[in-house]
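Quick one, tokens below. Sequence please?
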């Protein structure tokens, strides 16, 4: 029997509204509480991401043997080339685009606040 149910994934960042807008453009959904220290992004279905202002925020390093990246999001896409072009245009930064000639099904990026995320292609 489960002890709890996951209701939201919260992401610390320096500017909650800006980062929430980035992910809204990537994932869709509806923003609530823009301009506040906590911004919710209600995604299609039951998923929700929240973005919390964190004074003194330091982005995780990736990859690093001595520093932890803490967590990352895996985002499934239907067209890797198109998705890559679009997230880069929105302000993502490439971290690892070497997909080994198409043998590896993911590419790694950092969002505008520096959190790593992967685009995954089936």
């Amino acid at each position: 029997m489960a002890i709890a149910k996951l209701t939201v994934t919260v992401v610390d960042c320096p500017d909650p509204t800006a980062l929430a807008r980035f992910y809204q453009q990537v994932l869709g959904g509806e923003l609530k509480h823009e301009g506040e220290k906590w911004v919710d992004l209600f995604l299609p279905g039951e998923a929700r991401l929240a973005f919390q202002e964190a004074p003194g925020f330091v982005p995780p390093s990736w990859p690093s043997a001595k520093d932890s990246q803490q967590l990352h999001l895996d985002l499934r896409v239907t067209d890797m080339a198109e998705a890559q072009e679009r997230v880069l245009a929105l302000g993502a930064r490439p971290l690892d685009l070497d997909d080994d000639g198409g043998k590896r099904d993911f590419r790694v990026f950092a969002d505008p606040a520096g959190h790593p995320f992967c685009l995954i292609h089936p």
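The first strand starts at residue 9 and ends at 13. The first helix runs from residue 16 to 27.
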